[in-house]
Amino acid sequence: MNDNLPDEALDQLFRKARTYNAFLPTPVSDEQLRQIYELAKWGPTSANCQPMRLVFVKSAEAKARLAPHLSEGNRAKTLAAPVTAIVATDYAFYERLPQLFPHADAKSWFVGNPALIEVTAFRNATLQGAYVIMAARALGLDCGPMSGFDNAGVDAAFFPESQVKSNFLINIGYGDPSRDLFPRSPRLAFEEACAIV
Amino acid sequence: MNDNLPDEALDQLFRKARTYNAFLPTPVSDEQLRQIYELAKWGPTSANCQPMRLVFVKSAEAKARLAPHLSEGNRAKTLAAPVTAIVATDYAFYERLPQLFPHADAKSWFVGNPALIEVTAFRNATLQGAYVIMAARALGLDCGPMSGFDNAGVDAAFFPESQVKSNFLINIGYGDPSRDLFPRSPRLAFEEACAIV
């Protein structure tokens, strides 16, 4: 049995973590990006299906490819962020189930069932995107996730002729609390969002 | 700037965390369920929309209401778990945006746009479900998430005549590594799932 993590860890992951719009100039190394995935990959997905694909947009060339597809309010901050992760969803994920879930014929659950493919791919890639946010924070990095962009444009620029579709974006770096950090917005109280029955 | 969390914390959250099928008899208190939400609520959602609703199924009566809607392979373990959280999605989430995102008229972005409502609700409630898993682990608890159940049946039993729909389930307790813990399934390598561009 595990104990509670120390208060400072709970603060870093949840209570004091913020969505940053501006980042310090401190760079994020390729090794750190790899470490994020090497943690996030362990998060659970249904039938271990792991439909998330991640493109870390880091070079000036790739940022320029992303730029026209960002919403006006997200463009400048995204171009300035050290890295922007495109969290994407592989809708052909079930092709890999013989490798990922070897103890059952899980691929057969999906073939010919587009509604189940759709909901499973989107739910589980999104779960994995949240694991990426939590992994980045656990590694001392800050995130700025967003869904304000032209998905079709990003798909054409980064995933042409493929079963992979963009889901949401995460700017990653070391947050700069002195710039563009808004007052924290309210959260629903336990009684508004939850019930114990 | 934050540091990496210590290795033991990274193990607890990611590297050694497992999806448990069997739990120790140790109970989970209502206060612990509240603590899970009080951490998870801080996770980011788009326009702070917080569409997740959580029903913690704990009593024998409520477990009996859930039972007929579980898939055969998930029934016995779920009935035996100390708590089963129904992670649900409130498709009328935008009604609360004047409270949750007071600095813009975010509600108007959604009214009359059912496709945007649908994708925003499902994506963000799912992100929040992942935050619940990570919060439970941060508090020393173990999870057994699953999507193998009859959503319509669970909705009729727990969310009648409402805009709230079940998304996925999470058994919560202290995992019993001596029972029904399968060998860990493989994860995609960085090169299979990720690119740095």
From TrEMBL, chains A, B:
<keyword id="KW-0521">NADP</keyword>
<dbReference type="InterPro" id="IPR029479">
    <property type="entry name" value="Nitroreductase"/>
</dbReference>
<dbReference type="InterPro" id="IPR050461">
    <property type="entry name" value="Nitroreductase_HadB/RutE"/>
</dbReference>
<dbReference type="Pfam" id="PF00881">
    <property type="entry name" value="Nitroreductase"/>
</dbReference>
<dbReference type="GO" id="GO:0016491">
    <property type="term" value="F:oxidoreductase activity"/>
</dbReference>
<keyword id="KW-0560">Oxidoreductase</keyword>
<dbReference type="InterPro" id="IPR023936">
    <property type="entry name" value="RutE-like"/>
</dbReference>
<comment type="similarity">
    <text>Belongs to the nitroreductase family. HadB/RutE subfamily.</text>
</comment>
<keyword id="KW-0520">NAD</keyword>
<feature type="domain" description="Nitroreductase">
    <location>
        <begin position="16"/>
        <end position="158"/>
    </location>
</feature>
<keyword id="KW-0288">FMN</keyword>
<protein>
    <recommendedName>
        <fullName>Putative NADH dehydrogenase/NAD(P)H nitroreductase ALSL_2525</fullName>
        <ecNumber>1.-.-.-</ecNumber>
    </recommendedName>
</protein>
<dbReference type="InterPro" id="IPR000415">
    <property type="entry name" value="Nitroreductase-like"/>
</dbReference>
<keyword id="KW-0285">Flavoprotein</keyword>
